[in-house]
């Protein structure tokens, strides 16, 4: 299998893991009427758990220390995917449904492609940008359609989700760049380990004091082990093999996978129109895959 194709498949695996993040976060945080875990504990607690697992993994694999010029990129990656995206989405998920949030976060691939093109000095073709824009517009159209059909209007929490998109795009872009020089698994592990001095005390201070249902702890365990750790093994490796600009577009299918998972987990609804939008978005991903992405002179 060609490296680019392998990168796309690994990226798709990462996206499948990430697609459960918002429904699981919603399950762990509860609603404004019936709150469960705090947003701070969900975001920083999951990073602390993943950070401890990462420290053990780095020791077990005898990972070399990052080079001096890699620490800055690791800090930026950490700020995006360890702190920014998890904390902002955890706060927002108490106030919006998982389906609504999944649609807003569907703009992340376009943002990631833009960051990746800048970092890697690439010039995607006009056809690629048109495909990426078409996919993003389909996601936006779906959001507007949902707002008018079900009364779900643009909400203040959407601002948090937009800020989370910016953080995620930066973290994905810099992490994908590092994965071309380091093992993909080591990138997220080091980003989590250097965050432990902040995440571990914050997790201990914000831990739940009341008894919670096993399903709530199960949701937290998922976002800690899979969303915050194992998913990045596949995702960053996919970005390194297939290129951040191209593989990032696989994430366009994440909102619809998230909606699909939200149906049995949260009792939310999914209709035929949503499935049609999903098929159309997937088509833009395959079209964009055929468009050239050139290195800048």
TrEMBL record:
Residues passing through the membrane, by range: 40-61, 73-93, 99-119, 126-144, 156-175, 187-205, 211-235, 272-288
Similarity annotation: Belongs to the EamA transporter family.
A GO cellular component annotation in the UniProt record: membrane
Topology of this chain in the membrane: Multi-pass membrane protein
Domain called EamA: residue spans: 6-135, 160-287
Name recorded for this polypeptide: DMT family transporter
Short name of any one Pfam family annotated for the protein: EamA
InterPro entries xref list: AA-Vitamin_Transporters, EamA_dom, EmrE-like
Compartment list: Membrane
Main location: membrane
UniProt keyword Zinc present: no
Keywords of the record: Membrane, Transmembrane, Transmembrane helix
């Amino acid at each position: 299998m060609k490296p680019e194709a392998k990168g796309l498949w690994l990226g798709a695996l990462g996206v499948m893991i990430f697609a459960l993040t918002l429904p699981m976060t919603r399950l762990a945080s509860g609603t404004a009427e019936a709150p469960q875990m705090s947003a701070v504990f969900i975001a920083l607690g999951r990073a602390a758990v993943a950070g401890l697992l990462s420290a053990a993994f780095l020791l077990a694999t005898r990972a070399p220390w990052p080079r001096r010029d890699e620490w800055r990129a690791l800090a930026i990656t950490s700020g995006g995917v360890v702190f920014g995206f998890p904390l902002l989405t955890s706060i927002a998920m108490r106030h919006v449904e998982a389906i609504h949030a999944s649609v807003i976060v569907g703009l992340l691939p376009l943002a990631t492609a833009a960051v990746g093109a800048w970092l890697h000095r690439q010039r995607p073709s006009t056809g690629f940008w048109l495909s990426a824009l078409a996919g993003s517009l389909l996601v936006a159209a779906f959001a507007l359609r949902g707002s008018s059909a079900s009364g779900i209007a643009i909400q203040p929490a959407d601002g948090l989700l937009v800020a989370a998109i910016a953080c995620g795009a930066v973290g994905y872009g810099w992490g994908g760049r590092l994965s071309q020089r380091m093992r993909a698994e080591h990138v997220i592990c080091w980003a989590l380990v250097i965050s432990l001095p902040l995440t571990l005390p914050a997790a201990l201070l914000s831990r739940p004091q009341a008894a919670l249902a096993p399903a709530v702890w199960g949701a937290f365990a998922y976002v800690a082990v899979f969303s915050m750790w194992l998913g990045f093994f596949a995702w960053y490796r996919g970005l390194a093999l297939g290129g951040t600009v191209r593989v990032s577009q696989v994430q366009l299918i994440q909102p619809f996978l998230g909606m699909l998972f939200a149906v049995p987990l949260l009792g939310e609804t999914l209709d035929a129109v949503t499935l049609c939008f999903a098929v159309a978005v997937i088509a833009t991903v395959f079209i964009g895959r055929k468009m050239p992405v050139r290195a800048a002179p």
